[in-house]
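Input structure tokens:
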């Protein structure tokens, strides 16, 4: 066989150079997205109200968030917190913290939405969905949609979004949440996806992410390992899971550009756990951007 002509060699060299450049562009794109997506200004503190060894009140909690440089907050509550809602919103305003989301619905949703409107607040309402298991798929999706339609309509009138929140089970499956979003067909209804409730989705994470992406409003991070939940490590510090870097890479590649949640969701001091997750996330970003830093040692243990 005769050797390739000079023209063929030139074409081959051009194609190889283009492939290398494309890989380089993709790496640069992931690095740029990581810097932007995981910036402190885009992070939302989550699971720090009932989950906090220090049992902080509204003022101390808002001051703690300001101290950490976290300017966005998703609020979770228990019945004992209902009387302090107004104090919470006032404390957030004093410390320059944005209320990004509100977990579930309290006993008096109308009063809550009116309070938001008075202050110019418009957080997303994070809602779980479910329906009787004995229904066929389409009627089950329709039932789940109808259960939250009135809430979604009220939220929309108040300028608030609704985010379907995966909390395990059928209602937490990506395909279920997307189907309910489509059934409701409301532009302000989307999805808040939690990694700590998505261990079962790890083998198909990219597929699940692509499925949810048109409706995805929030992603809440967690340290993730393939057998983490089975080993009793459902909640882990960011950077301590062996899948944290590849999962973050996948999120960057996907094109998602919304808020990123970091959580406590433990019995630890919420500030200490948030610091651990912030430091772990900085390490993950270093791995994604080619600016590696020493892997931090968490001050809180899983």
């Amino acid at each position: 066989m005769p050797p390739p002509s000079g023209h063929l060699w030139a074409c081959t060299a051009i194609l190889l150079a283009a492939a290398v450049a494309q890989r380089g562009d993709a790496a640069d794109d992931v690095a740029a997205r990581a810097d932007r997506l995981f910036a402190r200004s885009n992070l939302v503190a989550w699971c720090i109200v009932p989950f906090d060894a220090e049992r902080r009140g509204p003022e101390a909690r808002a001051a703690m968030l300001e101290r950490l440089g976290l300017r966005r907050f998703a609020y979770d509550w228990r019945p004992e917190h209902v009387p302090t809602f107004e104090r919470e919103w006032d404390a957030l305003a004093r410390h320059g913290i944005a209320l990004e989301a509100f977990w579930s619905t309290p006993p008096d949703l109308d009063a809550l939405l009116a309070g938001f409107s008075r202050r110019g607040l418009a957080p997303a309402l994070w809602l779980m969905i479910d329906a009787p298991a004995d229904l066929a798929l389409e009627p089950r999706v329709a039932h789940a949609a109808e259960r939250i339609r009135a809430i979604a309509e009220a939220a929309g009138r108040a300028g608030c979004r609704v985010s379907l929140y995966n909390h395990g089970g059928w209602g937490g499956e990506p395909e279920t949440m997307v189907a309910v979003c489509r059934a409701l067909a409301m532009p302000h209804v989307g999805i808040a996806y939690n990694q700590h409730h998505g261990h079962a989705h790890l083998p198909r994470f990219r597929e699940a992410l692509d499925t949810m992406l048109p409706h995805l409003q929030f992603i809440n991070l967690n340290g993730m390992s393939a057998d983490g939940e089975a080993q009793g490590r459902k909640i882990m510090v960011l950077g301590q899971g062996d899948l944290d870097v590849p999962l973050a890479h996948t999120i960057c590649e996907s094109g998602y550009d919304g808020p990123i949640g970091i959580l406590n969701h433990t019995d630890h001091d919420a500030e200490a756990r948030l610091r651990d997750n912030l430091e772990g996330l900085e390490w993950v970003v270093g791995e994604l951007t080619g600016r590696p830093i020493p892997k931090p040692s968490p001050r809180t243990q899983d």
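The chain has one domain: 6-289. The longest strand covers residues 98-103.
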